[in-house]
Amino acid sequence: MKKITLLFIATLITASCFAQQELAFPFQGGKDVMNKFFKDNIDVSSDMVKRKVTGTAVFKFTSDTTGAIKKIIIYYADDVSLVTPIIEALKKSDGKWIVPFREKTHDFLIPFSVNFSPPANAGASLQKAVYDFDRARKPVLATNQIPLDMVTLLPAVVINYQIN
Q: What is the residue extent of each domain of the chain?
């Protein structure tokens, strides 16, 4: 009876060790490093600052065992101007992704939120600029079914930029 109990405990400990291997954060260095990487590498252009661009964008990408990004799909973006800087930052993250154990490729879903920090004395001109952007924005939408398969939803990356 003692041998069976000892074998059962050893099996549980071994299974929990493998579970830890499966649940590692998929970016080298963890969540905080990932957030810092994207905050440093998403280039908010002067045109975006001038237009007061804000919004959300959701991307799906595939990474292989070397951490290289193989495919990027835009699920949704509030404005087309959000797409280019985020794709460029995703390309810079090539080689930093960790694919779960025993998989050749893995899909990740990552949302981005881009906002500006308003000045202390926001006036009517800022309100007009925000309204003009909202009225003229060109959203990017998926118009066809996109299968999710086995995808890992990553935490949202929030980008705040300063305006004058």
A: 25-162
